[in-house]
Amino acid sequence: MKIDRRQFALPVLALGFMSVVPAFAGADEDAIAKNVEAFRAAQAAGNADGIAPLCAEELSYSHSSGAVDDKAALLAGVKNAKYKWTSLEYKNPTIRIVGPAAIVRFNFVGEQEFAADGKKVPQNLHVLMNWQKQGSDWKLLSRSATKL
């Protein structure tokens, strides 16, 4: 049986491409994980300027109360908050990339302290974030929270 080099070319190329695709997915997962942590840190600090570049212009941000903000309303709410976060963690995050989108889920656990009376309010939510690849950046496109 005579074997030609061309018979091996397609399988070798296919294996080569298969090994590259997970590397891109890993890089995207890392970028999304960094953005999620940057969002959490900015949120915990009440830093609207840190949140703004992470969000898509088309942002739809749903709170556990049922209120829905666009990007401008979210940033105004962060700037004018009548509370500060005494703690804020995103526990057990998962990231699933689907084409140019990513589904991120986590348990949002924190405590807010209100300026007017010093009252502390615990928060325990399940959060779903959808991130979209826009150019080379991942932007938060939507977020939804449910009280636990």
Automatic annotation (TrEMBL):
Q: Could you tell me which residue ranges the DUF4440 domain spans?
A: 32-140
Identify the keywords attached in UniProt to this record, alphabetized: Signal
- Which Pfam families is this protein grouped with? DUF4440
SUPFAM superfamilies named in the record? NTF2-like
Entry's transmembrane regions = none
**Entry's InterPro entries?**
DUF4440, NTF2-like_dom_sf
Secretion signal: which residues? 1-25
Name this polypeptide is given: DUF4440 domain-containing protein
Q: What taxonomic lineage is listed for the species of origin? A: Bacteria, Pseudomonadati, Pseudomonadota, Alphaproteobacteria, Hyphomicrobiales
